[in-house]
Write a structure and sequence with these properties.
Blueprint lengths: L2 H7 L1 H11 L2 H17 L4 H10 L3 H12 L4 H11 L2 H13 L4 H10 L2 H10 L9 H26 L10
Helix pairs in contact: 2-10, 3-5, 3-10, 4-10, 5-6, 9-10
């Protein structure tokens, strides 16, 4: 059995996915709105898709969109995004207690897929800051649902931005 198959079948992977499923509709609504906003602010399809996939941080995207639309200097956009995402420094200091023993490549992947709601859900499930069996599968179950709940509606919003009525208020 492959490592991926073991991960997907682990009971904690399912628990993480179920825990995240309760907030997925809210994430999806924000993702859809952000995707539409990117295109309606003047970003090209390629730019919006790249931003959605590379900048997996909704608040940073939402802070950057009006700056991009206003043709702000790149350093202002980057500084704003950096400041908005400073909370991830705190998150990473907490993640260290759980995942420092993992290889760097895996920790980097977890850093990309980590989000606010994943972090809260994980700490609720594992409040004691020490490695325990099941934490990695739980993280990936929660992170997978979080990522999909954001990316699928965000991409849909990007692709459908010009067909969604303005009356929706997105």
């Amino acid at each position: 059995m492959s490592a991926l198959h073991r991960l997907l079948r682990h009971p904690e992977f399912g628990a993480g996915a179920r825990d995240m499923a309760s907030v997925a509709p809210g994430l999806a609504a924000w993702g859809l709105m952000t995707g539409v906003s990117m295109v309606q602010s003047g970003m090209s399809l390629t730019e919006a898709l790249a931003m959605s996939l590379l900048v997996f941080a909704g608040s940073s995207q939402l802070a950057a969109i009006p700056l991009i639309a206003a043709s702000a200097p790149v350093w202002v956009i980057l500084a704003t995004s950096f400041c908005v995402n400073l909370r991830f420094v705190i998150f990473s200091s907490m993640w260290r207690n759980y995942f420092a023993h993992l290889p760097l490549r895996q920790r980097l992947a977890q850093g990309y897929f980590s989000g606010d709601v994943t972090f809260v859900s994980f700490l609720k499930r594992y409040p004691t800051p020490q490695p325990e069996p099941g934490q990695v599968p739980y993280f990936w179950g929660a992170a997978s649902v979080n990522w999909l709940a954001w990316q699928v509606p965000s991409v849909a919003g990007i692709l459908l931005a010009n067909t969604i009525p303005l009356s929706w208020g997105l």
